[in-house]
Amino acid sequence: MQRAERVVVLALDGVHPFELGIPSRIFGAADDRYEVLTCSVDGRPVRTNADFTIAVEHGPEVLATADTVVVAAIAPPHITAELPAEVLAALAHIRPETRVVSVCTGAFVLAAAGFLDGRKATTHWQLAEDFRRMFPHIALDPDVLFVDDGRVLSSAGAASGVDVCLHVVRKDHGSELANKVARRCVVPPWRDGGQAQYIERPVPQSSAAGTAATREWALERLGEPLALADLAGHAGMSRRTFARRFGEEVGMSPGRWLIQQRVTRARHLLESTDLPVDQIAGEVGFATGASLRQHLHAAIGVSPQAYRRTFQAAR
To answer: In this protein, which residues make up the domain named HTH araC/xylS-type (predicted)?
Structure first.
């Protein structure tokens, strides 16, 4: 039985309770693969941005024992370009090899502490201009749900903390466990990090036809050639109307969504089977193994063989 990886969540004054609880909820549902601890800069209770205070069990010294540190979101009035001395002292406990994740405005804390120097990052889209003004040397992308820049990851507002934590589980232990965690927490198992933060109409009006049923239909037929006309025809819409409504509901084009779903299915097959790459390509709807290699490399930066070796070794 492998050692549980330790995740330490840092709660700062003004913390959002919802975002603070995300790591414990997601990593805690991962079949004992993670141990989640919560700390403050001094081990004392932390005032939230709600009408209550949270008592924590640990002080900053526990950060030195973490495999992953998560900095939870804080309310905007608590954001500063220069961190208080006690926050800097707490963050100094983090070892150089530790993975660091921010949720929402936690990116401001990482930026002020130097963790984001020379890296890409994201934060809540409403605070993008504040971030750029305070940290002009950091490459900010406010249009995505999360950014994975190797050892340091950052996510956008609120629920995107769920996405980045599931992404970490997927990176560490594969899509089968990540999907199981998502089912247990009743959340979508996969939202692409590059998906738009702000979707024009995430919940369609009840009187309007949506694309959800067609997406489910397409997921059952990923191995078949699916054109925009096929999707629109199933939804009973013109291609133009379907593409517009799809973008409003999902935040990306139907073509990009299909590629994302095919890559996700291919990753699961690479992890869980010994099928040849060309056969997997056919199973998920890519014309050739070369096409699968191209799209997988674009999505996660590795070849199918390298990806499979990683998870075979983990098993």
So the answer is: 212-310
